[in-house]
Write a structure and sequence with these properties.
By secondary structure, this protein is of the alpha/beta class. It is 30% helix and 20% strand.
């Protein structure tokens, strides 16, 4: 049986100058990094079904103002490289995936005092 012969595809030579963008940015146009930073900073936390059920079962209420502070701190932790965080509140503890912007589970603070938390690489304490 003969071996297959592979021949290179002939294509024109590509030089670096063909891909240079010599156009100046228009005045007032923002850079991609600024848009990305803004988008990352405004990501909302989503609640897993499990976490939602646990908050309801334990009668834990978190108002919009506290959610805003939690979201802000989770995004700050994410920028610092945190992927999975424990968020300690005055009356609750949340496990949050900063990587996915998702609250994974929740428990009241008394229940959390007897737990061992693993695979957490950051802790956020918001007691007020």
């Amino acid at each position: 049986m003969d071996k297959p012969v592979f021949r290179p595809i002939q294509s024109p030579a590509v030089t670096n100058h063909q891909y240079r963008n010599n156009k100046a940015k228009p005045v007032g146009q923002h850079s991609f990094s600024l848009h990305l930073h803004t988008a990352i900073g405004t990501e909302k936390l989503t609640m897993s079904k499990h976490a939602s059920e646990r908050l309801e079962q334990r009668n834990i209420r978190i108002d919009d103002q506290r959610w805003g502070r939690i979201e802000k701190k989770v995004q700050e932790a994410k920028r610092m490289g945190v992927k999975e965080s424990l968020v300690l509140l005055k009356d609750a503890a949340l496990i949050v995936s900063a990587k996915n912007n998702t609250v994974i589970t929740a428990m009241d603070r008394d229940e959390a005092s007897t737990q061992i938390f693993t695979n957490i690489d950051g802790t956020i304490i918001l007691e007020n």
